[in-house]
Amino acid sequence: MSEETKSNKFSRRKFVKGIGSSIAGGYILSPAIAKAAKKISKEAKDFSEGKVPLSLKVNESVINVMIEPRTTLAELLRDELKLTGTKVVCNHGECGGCTVLLNNKAVYSCHLLALDAAGKDVTTIEGLSSNGKLHKIQQAFVDEDGLQCGFCTPGQVMAAAALLYKYSKPDKQQIMKEMSGNLCRCAAYPNIIKSVLSAVEKSNG
Amino acid sequence: MKNFEYLQPKSIAEAAGYLKAGNGTSIPYSGGTDALVMMKDNLISPKKVVNLKSIPGLNSIDYIRGEGLKIGALVTISDLAEHPVVKDKFKILSEAAESIASPQLRNVGTVGGNLCQRPRCAYFREDFDCLRKGGNACYAFDGENKLHCIIGGSLCYIVHPSDLATALLVLNTKISIASGEKINEIPIADFFVLPDEDFTRENILQSGEIVTSIFIPDLPEGTKSSYIKFRERAVWDFAVVSVGAVIQTSGSEIVSGRIAFGGVAPIPWTESVVNSKLINRTIDAHIADEIAESILSNADSLEMNGYKIPLAKNLTKRILTQLLM
Predict the structure, then answer these.
(1) CB of A156 within 8 Å of any CB in chain B?
(2) Radius of gyration of chain B (CA)
């Protein structure tokens, strides 16, 4: 993102998100009407049957919500908490796009009931950076060009973050094994490995 | 996925009560890595999902030297694979556990769930009214049967998908099953069910029965073990054919040994005629070939899976060579 777009408080991401909610609201373009519609749909949801309370920590904030038991952790993160950095791709635990940390271990958030995260600590890609400073893994992906289209990147970064909780100085074999549950359709694997290796070197340097 | 009630029992008896009362509409749920797939694909739509993870005391690994290894049903696959005693003394088990699915799924999936997972037959998983789902035909018999069984099939031709099951069969494991007030311990070989006994189930568990732990007798000194899994891709995939072996040697003699196969039959498969060849046998240059030639002598392949027979023989040669030479 360039400095100019930052200062305009406008980004491609926000634009796409805006379009998304307009469509969800039935092509209602007036923000006031859209807001009202959103409120109504939210209330209607809360009155629906079969919801149960869930309390967990997401990116160090305590979250208390009412959800349907069938809600996956990814659905909770994206649809309820609007943490859309976590990507749902296959929705079957077969690609890694939705990887988050559950008590510092990598899990597929699309393939875990949100209720199974009760009382636990969830870390998403939004929770990795602190005070506007990228996490060393994120910075390494930028520096080493560890992506092409970028869609699998949040999952890759989270798998790499889990790896660093498990090994202080993983070698290439350990990196390949621990990140084997994340697919990249651009096949940016060589640079993904390079990024993780570079983050490891820097943190041990 | 249809909504359901998520129950959090605090004891095995409470869980069993929920499962029995559900009368087929309640399912036991641990890691959920398989159950969730089946629910998302609407293969099952349980009204109540009984979370076994809320029961305390089922997630530890305890080793007593000279006795054996007790593993709780809720131990995750990754905790099993990385346990120091398992890595050191029961290599076959850590290798089998490490070969399962992917790191993220191993962090969630459990030992008990792995043993109780449903088959991966594409006809079973997709929209076919197959025998195992209560229909009246096995579509694999003259359909796409590249990944189906070569022995032990009749009416239905699934293979058992569990890597742990194959390894645990080699290790003479016992399974503890909570049934009513009692806990019954049975040999793992008696746990699995062939299609000609009952083609609608893979194991003997009745409604309300729960696998609580497994017990592996300690291995004598001088024992080596290994697990080799052949698959089409290195991650996520189930075994096309796998082989596990445990062999105790003394000098240039084999004292005893056991071999079992995954991916060849509807249950984890072992043959006493083969294992008997591994008792008091001198290790020589022919042993791997000889044993490999003797396996799966009653195999009867389908149209597309004949390759599994030479594959199993070659994997047998490989594992014996690796353990003995």
Answers:
(1) no
(2) 20
Q: What tokens appear for B258 in the block?
A: 């056991």
> Minimal Cα distance from A159: which residue of B?
B104
pLDDT over 80 (residue A13): no
Mean pLDDT of B193-205: 97
Q: Which residue of A has its CA nearest to B105?
A: A107
Of A69, A106, A115, the CB nearest to B107: A106
What tens digit of pLDDT does each residue of A103-134 get?
999 999 999 999 999 999 999 999 999 999 99
B47/B76 same-domain check: no
CA distance A140 to B205: 50
Of B220, B221, B237, the residue nearest B229 (C-alpha): B237
At B325 the pLDDT is: 87
- CATH architecture under which domain A136-204 falls: Orthogonal Bundle (1.10)
Closest CB to A99 among B36, B104, B236: B104
Selection from A114, A112, A117, A134 nearest residue A125 by Cα? A134
- The closest alpha carbon to B48, from B99, B9, B94, belongs to B9
CB–CB of A69 and B102 under 8 A?
no
Which pLDDT tens digit goes with each residue over B131-180?
999 999 999 999 999 999 999 999 999 999 999 999 999 999 999 999 98
- Which range of residues forms the domain containing residue B43? 1-56
CATH of the domain at B254: 3.30.465.10
How much of chain A exceeds pLDDT 70, in percent? 76
Distance from CA of B68 to the nearest CA of A (A): 28
Are B6 and A94 within 8 A, CB to CB? no
Query: Between residues 175 and 194 of chain A, which touch chain B (CB distance below 8 Å)?
Result: 177-181
B1 & B107 share domain: no
Strand residue runs (E) in chain A: 52-58, 61-67, 99-102, 105-108, 121-123
Within a domain: residue B152?
A: no
Residues B223 and B77 in one domain: yes
Residue A4 pLDDT level (bands cut at 50, 70, 90): very low
Q: How far is B74 from chain A (nearest CA, A)?
A: 14
